[in-house]
Fold this sequence. Notes:
Strand content: 15-25%
Strand order of the largest sheet: 3-2-1-4-5
Shape: globular
CATH architecture of the largest domain: 2-Layer Sandwich
Number of strands: 10
Amino acid sequence: MDTYYIGIDGGGSKTLAIIVDAQGNECGRGQAGSSNHTGVGLERAVSNIYHAVKQASLTLQEQANPSVHFHKAWLGLAGVDRPEDYTMLMAHLAPLADSVHLTNDAELLLSALENTVGIALIAGTGSIALGRNAQGQTARAGGWGHILGDEGSGYDIGLQCLKAVAHAADGRGQQTLLREQVLEEWQLTNADGIIGQVYTNPDKAKIARLSALVFHAVRQGDAVASAIIQRAASELAAHVKTVSAKLNYAPEQGIALALGGGLLLGEADYQRQVLEHVRQQQAVEIVVPVEQPALSAARAIIRLS
């Protein structure tokens, strides 16, 4: 029987599963909705994971492999932050493979660094930084969720956008292009309509998508939007600085930095600003953008015990 491995990247917006063979060649991939149990609930999170795996398995099944068996799986899921998260999820995910490695989604990025040593910084719907030093010590910053944290993320930028619009509508804040852009995006006739959109349908992904409007406004020279992005970039750099200090990296010691998340990878100007802020506080030896954490993890789990 052929041996297969699977990597699963489960974030706040989507879940991506990628299957590889024993040589690390990709054999299939599948996608589903969020698998962050803190956001969508345990039942839906688990269902989305298995749906992504099923979709990824279709290619193999079409090649006369009716039952795809996984030797090892690495699942990196947003919301896996405490021992109780791990225990609860493993009860449902253990049947996925002979050996299941379950971590926070940020750890997937470390699989792209030599010896998995360095710092991973993710900014998508949410944000988090996580690192490991050569002694095997780990540390993290962020990952507190959209109510307590997620600074520098798409949700955070989207929320700051809405606050700026509210302040401008009241006359308490500077006028901004974001006001008309948000009204157009959400098909509203006046700013008061934002209240119903936010409080009756608290969709994190919907708010996070507003970050695109902020970057667009920055390119049009909007001062309010520029301030939002500068603050967000500074917040992400603070995540890296905090993790570096916890792992006893000296400021002049060059670190390996892995970048992930749709926002940080998809907005080149934002990535540049974040790295500028990081380098003001910590030397960086190498930067590795991790476009496909699930694929990196699927290949890494082959050699990890």
